[in-house]
Amino acid sequence: MKSTGWKFEGDQGVFTLRHPELHNYLYFPLVNEAGMMSAITPNLHGEMTSSHNTFLLSPVSVEDLHNSKSARNFWVHIDGHGAWSVSGNSAKQNANRFMHQEEESQLEAGFLWHKLKRMNGEAGLQTEVTSFVPVTDDQIELMKVTLTNVGRQTLKLTPTAAVPLYGRSADDLRDHRHVTSLLHRIYVHREGVEVQPVLSFDERGHRINRVSYSVLGAEGDGSAPIGYFPVLEEYIGEGGALDWPEAVIANKPAYAQAGDSMEGYEALGGLRFAEAQLRPGESKAYVMAMVIAKDRADTERLSETYLSEKRFDELLAQNEAYWNEKLNTVSFQTGDPHQDLWMKWVTLQPILRRLYGNSFLPYHDYGRGGRGWRDLWQDCLALMVMEPAEVRYLLLNNYAGVRIDGSNATIIGTKPGEFVADRNNIPRVWMDHGAWPFMTTLLYIDQSGDMDFLKQPQTYFRDVFVKRCQEKDAGWLPEHGNRLLTVGGEVYEGTVLEHMLLQNLVPFFNVGEHNNIKLEGADWNDGLDLAPDRGESVAFTAFYASNLMQLGDLLLTWQDTEGVEHLEIAEEMAVLLDSVTAPVSYEDVQGKLNLLDSYYESVKVSVTGNKRKFSVADVVQDLKLKADRLVQHLRSKEWITSREGYSWFNGYYNNDGARVEGDHPLGVRMTLTGQVFAVMGGIADDEQVGHITKSVDRYLKDPNIGYRLNSNFGEIQQNLGRAFGFAFGHKENGAMFSHMSVMYANALYKRGFVQEGCEVLRSIYDLSQDFELSRMYPGIPEYINEKGRGMYPYLTGSASWLLLTMLTEVFGVKGNRGHLRLEPKLRSSQFDADGHAAVTTGFAGKQLEIVYGNPNRLDYGSYAIQSVTLNGEKIQLRSQEPGAVELDRSMLSALSGSERQLIHVGLA
């Protein structure tokens, strides 16, 4: 039997996939705000954890999903037919699959639940396994197994649930795997099996452990199991395995009873239920709960709360309502309903990134939890739309990670604003890190109009590393804490504006020999990590140039709207505003570095705590001067042309100080990153943008995988980065890297190259939803490899950028210093048959439905805004242009009621 790919059912994003077990590497996330993080596959494999050190199921990478036998399982021994797994996860069923004797099976999934249906045609037994993580305060995953007799004979069944209890840190998977099992204390309860290791053996040391792990279960009516298999080796038997366990295959009676305890073995949540007689048409349900608790499990409470079919169904309905309400905050209606539903799954992804960080899903088997610095800011782009109430708090806390030298903490805690020193004392600075906070904050201010946010005070991060991690401060000790102090020993605070100025002024002076900003440890592309001495990132020099321009514009708005004439910054920072204090030549690389080094020395240990006042006008002039200098430099020095006559921006210099892009004996070398920020930030003029699109199409566009991150350099680049050790067409070496592709589309839309931007977005969608190639569930992957397979699904910053691009550029719904600007850039194909396209989103504390009416289905560039109504009434506009209008924030804020407000925009 051949799967035909997933398909949507209904209009809520639910999708189905026949025979999902025929595809490797598939998994689905199940998660809640309490910290339970699960992944589940079509054969109920995956993982279940609340942190790097607390895994209930064994931690897994993608290859384990089809090679390991350790998984959730539920068996039925059918009288006259033998043992059978409801997940298809038995040695016999796996063998039959390759003998073309597949069972009928189907996956069905929605927000955020997972259902597996399977048919045992020989016995006439149909099963459903539904799994989800409830939206409660417990770290728990629930599973309901429903058995239905669809045959003509009464079935005699013996059910057994079997979930291996790993119960320890991911560090113990190989390191002391057996020794750590000796720490296990296993307790058998009426409700199930619990294991609580007495100690934790991991990088934190040999500590007393309090965390417990349980597998609890009951029949649908709440009846408890009749026996238990708490020890793994006794369950599988000598010569047995988890996919062919002796206890089930031989239908052995359970040997353990409630009240038993044992220690020193690998544990199993093995629950034997009473023998059941299923008449034709009859069903029977079983409910399991997998629990991670901070201490011994309160099994009685958990049983009452979760272990019945009635409670399971109630919690499942609550779970569906919770996620649907959250995701309905933003939704799109275009001429392609299938793509609109696909976008709902993309909308989920930034929330998943907030909850999982960059770990705890099988492809994301690196890291130990939490998020990186860049993630903190880019995820907020989408959260401003999805969960706006928390954004101001998150942004302000994030600024506490900035160092006074312009770099930032790289180890992020689990709580907002929690930063810790580098775990292994290995310093690394990503040169792009200073660019993202301003971009995100500017979006927040445009959405909210909250100019007062610039005045908010915040501390600075401090650890042993100084001078952008070039040196260590021998006098700093961990007991000093992680906050910058004044010479008087007090915690120093600067405004958010001071933090933003610092992060963008320091890089301006931190240049290489070609007067572009140094690459340091890497930029956005972590794989460009081998050019710390002479490497330069021209790409992000363009980003910082754009930031400096926009910072100046923001200060002018602050001055005009708030009447602010002066600002204060740390007196040591005054040298960075050199045109106001002591000008240096921007052509003099060494002079810029000398100025920067003098600044580093002045803040190496502490700051005075004194502030220096500057006029806003002087600061704006300084920022504009720097920005203009960078733009002129990039346009004159980094614009290159190939022998074929194609032109674009060089993006990098390597550790030999050589230009990276352009003609080369092994083929033309080009990066997409080098073009994106030059286009997005206005560094490229309109003519140059046209040339760039042609060059990208010539050297980077591939009809099979989309827009590659770079062309084939043809050799390892030990003077640039590890990325070029990857096979070409994979990950950071020439794959379709969704993040940069979406940003490229965003940049094109910003510059009015709508047809080109639309083509980029369409290619990403087409590739991602083509299951026969991408082999992934709905959503956008981190990248698409040379074969067209979608890699690293769910946890990717590209989802935030895609959501933002669809909302603010395609539909043109954006803020402008707090006011609502509508500037649609919809193509004719994006309107439905009646000429409508709509978006639902929040703005000014109101839920808005914005409908664009285009009865003639004109294409972008052929229509203009003719009328705007609010709830059917014509309104006074703040401003109007042929392609855009602006609505005053106060008018929207004054609307009464919590119901959705309808804005209709007529196009003709």
TrEMBL record:
GO terms for molecular function: carbohydrate binding; glycosyltransferase activity. Pfam families: GH94_b-supersand (PF06165), Glyco_hydro_94 (PF17167). Signal peptide: none annotated. Keywords: Glycosyltransferase, Transferase. SUPFAM superfamilies: Galactose mutarotase-like, Six-hairpin glycosidases. The keyword Glycosyltransferase applies. InterPro entries: 6-hairpin_glycosidase_sf (IPR008928), 6hp_glycosidase-like_sf (IPR012341), Gal_mutarotase_sf_dom (IPR011013), GH65_N (IPR037018), GH94_catalytic (IPR033432), GH94_Enzymes (IPR052047), Glyco_hydrolase_94_b-supersand (IPR010383). It comes from the Bacteria. One of its GO terms (biological process) is carbohydrate metabolic process. PANTHER family: CELLOBIONIC ACID PHOSPHORYLASE, CELLOBIONIC ACID PHOSPHORYLASE-RELATED. This is Cellobiose phosphorylase.
